[in-house]
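thought: fold this chain, then report.
action: predict
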Amino acid sequence: MSIARFYLLCEPEGNHCIADINEAAPYNVEKIRCPIESGHARSRRNSPLDMVVPCDPAPDVIFTWMSECLIQEPVRQIFDSEGLTGFSTLPARAKIKKTGVTIPVHELAVTGWGGMAPEATGIREVERCPGCGHLVYSRLEAPEKLIDIQNWDGSDFFMVWPLPRFRFVTERVVEVCKRRGVTGMAFLQNWPTPQRESNGYSPGRLSYYMPRDRARFLGGTLGID
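observation:
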């Protein structure tokens, strides 16, 4: 399978239906403090998303201001019935802003694996804090080299570390979503642009983005779980 057969699952251009946090039910966060470097302080969410959706009707796939991705229950059923792989669903809640009507949703967690970004992309680990595990990677210079087929586990949804919010998908996902009329997302073949003025990435740990057991299986030996 060539690189041309892969896509990025993204928000549609000009998306006006971005969900926001339900201020009446803020999620819980775990504060992480580094015993060595105060600048490494950060937090991770440890409770389900509870979101308010500004449009009615809501699309089938709903993105949030923090780039999380929610799917309505019928979409989960479509993905399951079509046998798509490389994802799991996490508990989530959502309601329509204007009416307060709840929507049955799940948070989409990508669990498929495309491996570590090859060094040819320009991405390299440049910092690993011994006190708190804070990770820093250099910037992306050659996005067309992100996917190494030898590192891909064959899943329909997959990520390449350290780019967990770039949801790579196969042609099969695109075909299913178009055939079944799933709304609220776009599929792009334009890879992320090179980061000419960026300091790189500090994505946290793999377990911030998928179930802990899966993160441990994929990233335990790499020290990124």
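thought: worth noting. The chain has a mean pLDDT of 92.
final: tokens above.
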